[in-house]
Amino acid sequence: MENIHIEGSHTNFFIPTVDFNSETGYCLLEGESFLEDTIEFYDPLIQWLEEFTTEVKNPLTFEIKLTYFNTSTSRSILDLLNIIKDYEEDGGEVLINWYYDEDDIDMEEDIEDYMLDTGLEIEMIPFED
Amino acid sequence: MATINKKLSLGQSLFSEEIRISYKGPVDGKIITYLGDYIGVVNTLSEKATKKLFKIFFELAENISKYSSEKIKLKNGKEVGAGTIILKETVKNFILVTGNPIKNEHLIPVLENSKNINELDHSELREYKRSVRRENKDENHSPNIGLITVALTSGNPLDLEINPIDEKTSYFSISVKVDK
Fold first, then answer.
1. Residues of A with CB under 8 A from a CB of B
2. What is the domain range of residue B93?
């Protein structure tokens, strides 16, 4: 299974940095997400995660360090987290860390809402901007 | 048209100190990211308020890009929605106003959604946003999750105005306050 690495950028659109590693089970989504075609960008990540959780089945550490994401992206994040929840329910070992700016109350609420939606335990880690 | 001008505070106040950003034209990714970054430059808000303004701006600008019935073809062949974006500053708050023509078939779900939004308190809005996101319906025919996000982020009601242009199209403008 191939790893995914996408270098983030902040130009005409905001592309997040993606680092999905099948050998270590470490997955990172970092930066800002405002994309020309959100589904086109996130579909391969969703497929990768489905393959990892159904075939590789190693412990998974999923880290989110997004400082901004639009509502289109928020749907795709929910899809990713739902896959992780299914994996956890099937006995997969899962750790989710979500880093957020301590001043960003909206982001804090977003994370709480994702926990309610998915039933996942997400480690909320505030940082100073 | 007079109402639209009033809404957008065009006319005399266009060149006053109140206007921080004024843009009319095609709204593509390049413009959205450029103006979005500029929001951080033109205001002296706290980091917290700047983040709110930034988020609201992106959602409203994306709505113009997606739903404006006025399409402009760019050099690269891509058609994008066009509209007006104004950022005004008052003593107590920033006011972001966007306006664009919209097909009435797109307007109806927006109006129904906005009525709901303005009747809900903060925790009810969070629940509403979660339920809309969960359902993940066709964006053209389901409540606009972007507007729910705007209301949640702003903490103030959405101020909407609709002026019919013809049988199929209306001019839609929305004004959102962000407290300083």
1. 10-14, 34, 36, 68, 70-72, 74-75, 78, 101, 103-106, 109, 113, 116-117, 129
2. 2-179
| Predicted TM-score of the model (pTM) | 0.88
pLDDT band at A70 (very low <50, low <70, confident <90, very high): very high
Could you count the other beta carbons within 10 Å of the beta carbon of residue A9? Answer: 13
Per-residue confidence (pLDDT) for residue B142, from 0 to 100: 53
Read off the CATH number of the domain in which B117 is found.
3.30.565.10
CATH superfamily of A4-127: STAS domain (3.30.750.24)
How large is the ipTM? 0.90
Shortest alpha-carbon distance between residue A101 and chain B (Å): 10
Q: Which of B28, B29, B47 sits opposite A129 (nearest CB)?
A: B47
Amino acid in position A39: I
Q: What is the pLDDT of residues B74-95, one digit of tens each?
A: 888 889 999 999 999 888 889 9
At residue B15, the pLDDT reads 46
Q: What's the pLDDT at A103?
A: 87
Instruction: List phi, psi (to 5°) of B43.
Output: -120, 160
The domain ranges of chain A are 4-127
The neighbour count for residue A86, using CB atoms within 10 Å, is 15
What's the number of domains chain B is made of?
A: 1
Q: B157: left (phi > 0), else alpha (psi -120 to 50), else beta? A: beta
